[in-house]
Amino acid sequence: MADQQRAYVPAKKIDTEFPLIDNDPHFKRVMRYTRPYDYAVATATAAAGPGLMLLWEKIAPSYVGRGGFAPIMRLTGVVGLTAGFLILYQRSALRFYGFTENKREVDKDMREMVDKVKRSEPLYGESTLSPYMQGVATRNSRYTAVWLHVLPWFNFVNHNQHGVDTKKYYRQAERELEDERTK
Predict the structure, then answer these.
(1) Can you give the pLDDT at residue 114?
(2) pLDDT of 132-160, one tens digit each?
């Protein structure tokens, strides 16, 4: 009874305007695919809190006395940095899901995965977890960037359950290798 194979339940396919790249991207991959504009939005988000606190202090002084305003500014800075990071991560992750325009990421993903196929590397990295635990990890972190504002949850596990057909990477690698042979 303990040796029975557990049933694999595939992820629900969500219809989006743009192609799905990965429904459970690894944290490092999300950060690697971040665009410069995402950094600009994150910086503006992080600076908004402390900036507004300074503005409010100018408009309506709190008169907290010496040393009273600095701790509030530090707290506001930490909250701003956290919000900035979360918006940066979410903007990048939503492109993996196909929720926003992702042409650049689709091309980068194809290049990265085809190169891994050519080097005979696993597409999504090596994992030390059992297949069952990899499944648990993916079920707990799939599409989590949608609710990042409620519960920040990231995928730090390498696994092969990403909601995409990986045959496209192997076909493209075969085409490129064939083109290299004919040259």
Answers:
(1) 92
(2) 898 888 889 999 999 999 999 999 998 88
**Terminal Cα-to-Cα distance of the chain (whole angstroms):** 56
Whether the CB-CB separation of 143 and 107 falls below 8 Å is answered with: no
Look up tokens 């920040």; give the residue: 152
Q: What is the pLDDT of residues 89-129, one digit of tens each?
A: 999 999 999 999 999 999 999 999 999 999 988 888 888 98
For the record, the structure tokens of 106 come out as 């689709």
Degrees, nearest 5: CA angle 23-162-142: 45
Give residue for tokens 């994150």: 42
Residue 131 C-beta-side C-alpha neighbours within 13 Å: 5
CA 144/CA 154 separation, integer angstroms: 7
Q: Provide the H-helix boundaries in 1-125.
A: 27-32, 36-59, 69-97, 103-118
**139: Cα separation from own chain's centroid:** 15
80-95 average pLDDT score = 96
Helix (H/G/I), strand (E/B), else coil: 23:
coil
Which residues, at least 6 apart from 159, have a Cβ–Cβ distance to it below 8 Å?
Answer: 24, 124, 127, 129, 134, 135, 137, 138
| Cα 135 from Cα 175, distance rounded (Å) | 32
Is 19 within 8 Å of 106 (Cβ atoms)?
A: yes
Question: Taking the model in full, what pTM does it have?
Answer: 0.87
What the block records as the tokens of 83 is: 């919000």
